[in-house]
Specification:
The protein is α+β, with helices and mostly antiparallel strands. The chain folds into 4 domains: about 60 residues, Beta-grasp domain (Ubiquitin-like (UB roll), Roll), CATH 3.10.20.30; about 190 residues, Threonyl-tRNA Synthetase, Chain A, domain 2 (2-Layer Sandwich), CATH 3.30.980.10; about 280 residues, BirA Bifunctional Protein, domain 2; about 90 residues, 3-Layer(aba) Sandwich (Rossmann fold). It has 21 helices and 35 strands. An 8-stranded mixed β-sheet has the order 18-22-23-30-27-26-24-25, with helices on both faces. The radius of gyration is 32 Å and the shape is globular. The protein binds one RNA strand through strand 14, strand 15, helix 9, helix 12 and helix 19.
RNA sequence: GCCUCCUUAGCUCAGUCGGCAGAGCGUUUCCAUGGUAAGGAAAAGGUCGUGGGUUCGAUUCCCACAGGAGGCUCCA
C-alpha cells in the first residue's frame, strides 16, 4: 500500500505508512517530541496518540508544556483519582471530574455511615488516596477509548446513578458526551486487577487522554470540599476532591511556591501584622474595625477620591443608615433582595401600631429622594450626587471573607441623574474618570465586562434593556480595552459595565461598576422640566469606583503586599538616632516633617540600630532616616529607602524636596 | 445556608492516652548607646472560643452555639 501524506503545522508534508498513529508520527519526527507528546490535533480535533492517521490529515502534536497538553494531563489525573477512590471505597459512586485552572477535581458520594448521613472524606483519606493513585500511575495503565451503546453503558454504570443521569443526557458533563445512542468511554485496563479477577476502571469520557498513567505523577491532592450535584443547592451535596497537576516536578513545586507567596500577601494576614484592622468576634461576622494605621490609609484613599470627585462635578450628600420599609418597597429592594437585608427593626407606638425600619443595603433610594426634594430643571442635569455611604447586607454565613466580602461596608457611591440624551456622553466621560482614578491608586491593567439582562428577577421591558445595554456596549467599545460579555449578570434594574483589574500577581478583581437604570426614576416618579416646558423622566446611572472602600483597601493591600506607596503609607518616615544623644535632633526633624504635612515618627535608641531598622523594614515603612554625629553636625540624614540603597549625608532640605516630589508624582499633582 | 477542617498568651504554634499548660516572637523593666534587617537579662501575660452534657475531676470526650479557613450555592 502506498504511503499516506500528513501535513504538519509548519506547512511541510510528510509521507508515512498507512495505519501510522499520531504517536508514531511524533516518534518519526523526533524522540524528544515523542517523549513530550500528550495528544494530537488531527484536522482540528483532539485525538489520543493511538489515533490512526488518514491520507491528507493535518496533524500537530500537543505536548505537556502547552495549555491543551496540561489540560489533558490534569483530566487524566482526575481519572486516576476516581479509580483510586473507587478502589479504596468500594461502595462509593462517582459523578464528574473535569480539569480546572491549575488542576482538577472529581466529585464523589460515599455510602451513608451509621448516622444515615452520606459519608465524607477525612484528611487521612486524602493521604491513602494519594498513595493509591501513585500505585495506579506506576502500573502504567493505558487509557483505552471506546464507543458503546447507551444500553451497555447503563449496565456498566448500573450502580452509579450520577453516571446514569449523564448517559440519559439529564446532566451536562464537560468531559463526557453522548450522541446518537452511543456513549464514549475510557477504560484503564489493569494487569494487577485482572489477575485478581477484578474489573478495570472505566469512566464516561470524551477524552482525549495521555497514552498511559505513567505519563502522570506530578500532582498533589489539595483539599476536600462539598459541592452540590449539578451545582444546584437543592440537589445532594457531593464530596469534591481538588488536586493540582503539572508536567514536571519543577512546575508543581513552582505552583506550590506561588500559592505560598499569595498567602503571604493575604490582606487578612497583613491586616493583623501591620496593625491595620481587625474583626472582633464581639462585633459580629463580616464587620471590621479599622485601627489607627488602617484608618490613616482609608482617610488618604477617601480624601483623594473626594478631591477628584469635587473636580469632576460631583456634589456631596449624606444619608442615614436606616430607613422605614416603605422606601425599600418603592425602590424594589424588598421585593427582590429582602433575603440579603438584615431583618427589620419594628418600633411599636402605644397603640401597638408601629413602623418597620431596615438597615440600608444601598444608597440609591436616598439619593433619589434628594433629587425629588424639589422640582428639577434640565439646566441642573447631569446632577451627580456622591456619598461614602455605609451599607449593610446580610451575607450568608459561608460567604463572608475578610474585607472583600463583608456584611457592613462603605460604598464610594454616586448616582448621576441626566436626560436620556446625555447618558452616552456622561457614561463615556465617567469611564475615563474611573480608569484615571484607579490608575492613580496604582492599578493599570484592566479589562471591561458587560453584564446583560438576567433571566429572572428583573424589571423593565426587553426593549428598554436592549437599549440600555447597547448604550453601555458602545461606550465600552470606545475604550481600547478588552470587552468580555457576562450574559445575565446585570442587576434587576439595569445592565452594567464593570472594570476588572489585574493586580501585581495577576489575579483579577472586579472593581468599579457602572449601571444604567431606567427603572428607579420611574418607581420614584422623578422628573425634570425640559427646555420645552414639559415634564420628562430622567435616567439614572449608578456607579461605585472602589466598589467598597474596605474591599478596595484589601485589594490595594494585597496588590502592594503591604508596602503601600509613600503617598498612602500610614507612616512615611521613621527617624532613628544612632545613640540616645541624637534623639533630640531626630525629634526636631520629625516635628518639621509632620509640620510640612508628612507622616513621620521617632523611635528612641533602646535597641541596637540594626534591630530598629529591621523592625521598620518589617513594617514596610518607605523611608528610614538614621541620624548620628555626622548628621547632627552637618544638618543631614542617612536615608534608607524601602527596597533601595542606603545614602549617607543627605541634606534635610534635599530629602524633603525628594519626598514631596515623589508624592506629587504619584497623585499626578492634580 | 450546605460540606470538610480549625479555635491554647497580642502573634505563630507545641502539649495534655481526662488530673487547672509551654516555646519563639511581641510587650514591660533593667543592663548595654550602637552608623544601616535580630545585644543580654528578668518580669508580666492564658476560665485552653462560649454554653451545656458525661465524669470524682474536662483545655482534652460528646452536643449546641459563636468565630475562622477552604469549597459549593449566592453576591442588588
Amino acid at each position: 500500500m502506498a504511503d499516506i501524506t500528513i501535513t504538519l503545522p509548519d506547512g511541510s508534508a510528510r509521507q508515512v505508512a498507512p495505519g501510522t498513529t499520531a504517536g508514531e508520527l511524533a516518534a518519526a519526527i523526533g524522540q524528544r517530541l515523542a517523549d513530550a507528546a500528550v495528544i494530537a490535533d488531527v484536522n482540528g480535533v483532539e485525538r489520543d496518540l493511538v489515533w490512526p492517521l488518514s491520507d491528507g490529515d493535518a496533524v500537530s502534536i500537543i505536548t505537556a508544556d502547552s495549555p491543551r497538553g496540561l489540560y489533558t494531563l490534569r483530566h487524566s489525573t482526575a481519572h486516576v483519582l476516581a479509580q483510586a477512590v473507587l478502589d479504596l471505597f468500594p461502595r462509593a459512586t462517582f459523578a464528574i471530574g473535569p480539569p480546572i485552572e491549575d488542576g482538577f477535581y472529581y466529585d464523589f458520594q460515599l455510602p451513608p455511615g451509621p448516622d444515615g448521613k452520606p459519608g465524607t472524606f477525612t484528611p487521612d483519606d486524602l493521604e491513602r488516596i494519594d498513595v493509591r493513585m501513585r500505585e495506579i500511575i506506576k502500573e502504567r495503565q493505558p487509557f483505552v477509548r471506546d464507543e458503546i451503546p447507551d444500553d451497555d453503558a447503563r449496565k456498566i454504570f448500573a450502580d452509579h446513578p450520577f453516571k446514569l443521569e449523564i448517559i440519559d443526557g439529564e446532566a451536562d458533563d464537560p468531559t463526557s458526551a453522548t450522541e446518537a445512542g452511543l456513549v464514549r468511554t475510557y477504560e484503564n485496563p489493569s494487569e494487577a486487577k485482572g489477575a485478581r479477577g477484578e474489573a478495570s476502571f472505566i469512566d464516561l469520557c470524551r477524552g482525549p487522554h495521555v497514552p498511559h498513567t505513567k505519563r502522570l505523577g506530578h500532582f498533589k491532592l489539595m483539599r476536600v470540599a462539598g459541592a452540590y450535584w449539578r451545582g444546584d443547592e437543592h440537589k445532594p451535596m457531593l464530596q469534591r476532591i481538588y488536586g493540582t497537576a503539572w508536567a514536571t516536578k519543577k512546575d508543581l513545586d513552582a505552583h506550590l511556591v506561588r500559592l505560598e507567596e499569595a498567602a503571604k500577601r493575604d490582606h487578612r494576614k497583613l491586616g493583623v501584622e501591620l496593625d491595620l484592622f481587625s474583626f472582633p468576634e464581639e462585633v459580629g461576622s463580616g464587620l471590621a474595625v479599622f485601627h489607627p494605621k488602617g484608618g490613616t490609609v482609608r482617610r488618604l484613599m477617601e480624601d483623594y477620591s473626594r478631591m477628584r470627585h469635587a473636580e469632576s462635578g460631583y456634589e456631596f450628600v449624606n444619608s442615614p443608615h436606616i430607613s422605614k420599609a416603605d422606601l425599600f418597597q418603592t425602590s424594589g429592594h424588598l421585593d427582590w433582595y429582602a433575603d440579603g437585608m438584615y431583618p427589620p427593626m419594628t418600633l411599636d407606638d402605644e397603640h401597638g401600631e408601629g413602623a418597620t425600619y431596615y438597615l440600608k443595603p444601598m444608597n440609591c433610594p436616598f439619593h433619589t429622594l434628594i433629587y425629588r426634594s424639589r422640582l428639577r430643571s434640565y439646566r441642573e442635569l447631569p446632577l451627580r450626587l456622591f456619598e461614602f455611604g455605609a451599607v449593610y447586607r446580610y451575607e450568608k454565613s459561608g460567604v463572608v471573607q475578610g474585607l472583600t466580602r463583608a456584611r457592613g461596608f462603605t460604598q464610594d457611591d454616586a448616582h448621576i441623574y441626566c436626560t436620556k440624551e446625555q447618558a452616552p456622553e456622561e457614561l463615556a466621560s465617567l469611564l475615563n474618570f474611573v480608569l484615571d482614578l484607579l490608575r492613580d491608586y496604582g492599578l493599570d491593567d484592566f479589562y471591561l465586562e458587560l453584564s446583560t439582562r438576567p433571566e429572572e428577577k428583573v424589571v423593565g421591558s426587553v426593549e428598554e434593556w436592549d437599549e440600555a445595554t447597547e448604550v453601555l456596549r458602545q461606550v465600552a467599545l470606545s475604550k481600547e480595552l478588552e470587552l468580555v460579555m457576562d450574559p445575565g449578570g446585570g442587576a434587576f434594574y439595569g445592565p452594567k459595565i464593570s472594570v476588572q483589574a489585574r493586580d501585581a500577581i495577576g489575579r483579577t478583581w472586579q472593581m468599579s461598576t457602572i449601571q444604567l437604570d431606567f427603572q428607579t426614576p420611574r418607581r420614584f416618579g422623578i422628573e425634570y422640566v425640559g427646555s420645552d416646558g414639559a415634564r420628562h423622566e430622567p435616567v439614572m446611572i449608578h456607579r461605585a469606583l472602589f466598589g467598597s472602600v474596605e474591599r478596595f483597601f484589601a485589594i490595594l493591600l494585597e496588590h502592594y503586599a503591604g508596602a503601600f506607596p509613600t503617598w498612602l503609607a500610614p507612616v512615611q518616615v521613621r527617624l532613628l538616632g544612632v545613640r540616645d544623644d541624637h534623639h533630640a535632633y531626630a525629634a526636631r526633624l520629625a516635628d518639621r516633617l509632620n509640620a510640612e504635612g508628612f507622616r513621620a515618627e521617632v523611635i528612641d535608641a533602646s535597641e541596637k540600630l540594626g534591630n530598629r531598622i529591621r523592625r521598620a523594614k518589617l513594617e514596610k515603612i518607605p523611608y528610614v532616616l538614621v541620624v548620628g554625629d555626622d548628621d547632627v553636625e552637618h544638618g543631614t540624614v542617612g536615608v534608607n529607602p524601602r527596597g533601595g540603597e542606603v545614602e549617607r549625608g543627605v541634606a534635610i532640605d534635599d530629602f524633603i524636596v525628594r519626598l514631596r516630589a515623589e508624592i506629587d508624582a504619584a497623585t499626578a499633582a492634580r
